[in-house]
Amino acid sequence: MMFEVVETLLKDVDEKQTELIYQAFLNPERTHIKTWPASHKKACVLMRWVGTFFKEGVHYSEKEVNAILKTLFPDFVMLRRMAVDIGLLSRDISGTTYQKRQQP
Question: What is the pTM of this model?
Answer without folding.
Answer: 0.89
